[in-house]
Specification:
Strand content: over 45%
Distance between the termini: 39 Å
CATH architecture: 7 Propeller
CATH superfamily: YVTN repeat-like/Quinoprotein amine dehydrogenase
Shape: globular
Largest sheet: 4 strands, antiparallel
Strand order of the largest sheet: 3-2-1-28
Order of helices and strands: HEEEEEEEEEEEEEEEEEEEEEEEEEEEE
CATH class: Mainly Beta
Oligomer: single chain
CATH topology: Methylamine Dehydrogenase, Chain H
Amino acid sequence: MRLGILTIFGLIASLLLSGVTATAGQFAYVSLDGENRIAVYSADEKSGELSPRPDVATPSPPGGLTSDPKNRFLFASLRQAGQLASFRIGDDGGLTLINTVEAGADPAYVATDRTGRFLLTAYYVAAKVSVHRIGDDGSLSDKPLQEISTDTKAHAILTDPTNQFAFVPHTGPKAIYQFRFDAQTGRLSPADPLVVDTGENSGPRQLAYHPKLDVVFFDYEQGSAIAGFDLDRKTGQLSFRERLSSIPEDFSETNSNARIEIHPSGRFVYVANRGHDSLAGYRVDAKTGKLTGFGQTPTEKTPRGFAIDPAGRFLYAAGQSSDRLAAFRIDQKTGSLSRFATYDVGKNPWWVHVVRLP
């Protein structure tokens, strides 16, 4: 009898442990602007295949998504409501709402600093950037620590790998705003000069930092191009180095870029083409950062958001007009993409974010 009880307890313990192991791992989050919810998926780290998990409702349509460096919390912009939301990420990848705060008209992009103590936001309509403090419990401060007026259509804000600088591309004035960032206080201060004019037929929208080189890449929304800039680590200033098209020379229809992502290794960069409905790929020289394009991969219609998994093996691209998510394997030598699955995710997928839990 005693042996039987011990055996039962052993089986229960084994089941509990196996459950924990099964739920820990990699998860993908897709914001659905047309359904007021964030779709949640577990992502197999070997095959890249997605399996649906319970979704989470949002107070209003969700837009941009990001997480802190330790992936304990997920943050979402609620663009139509002009709010920011914070969620706790569970061991099973599930989301629990912590709080929402008033922010400003149309928060287009959210990102934490490299310490995960501050949330930075760029506002498309309110024409500003803000910094909110993140509490130990993941809650956002009711009022911003700082707000700075910039210009119309601020589309992104992201601190560099050293957490000393932040850049804000604007598709309206076709300019990049340059800031210094104090990681202790969370405050931004204007660099000198504050504004970099990117010229006609550009429209810098989002950005990606090379993980090792002092190089920053921007996608040009109106120019259908990618541009590389050198970053001066002493002054925090950007200087233009090159520009390459994101569409074929013979493509004459309307196109605009949506998102840019760099591979974790820094060897490849991808840009989403809305109109050509493709992902443009570029190889990055490991010593110089010089770009070489290697063509476009067809994807779902109107690819607004996409994300690369933390290991750099898979890329997931949302088709805003098709309501589907395309999954690709990334060739680790060439950077080329091969589609292996397509998922129906819901109405108007806006953003894709992938995290790996310990």
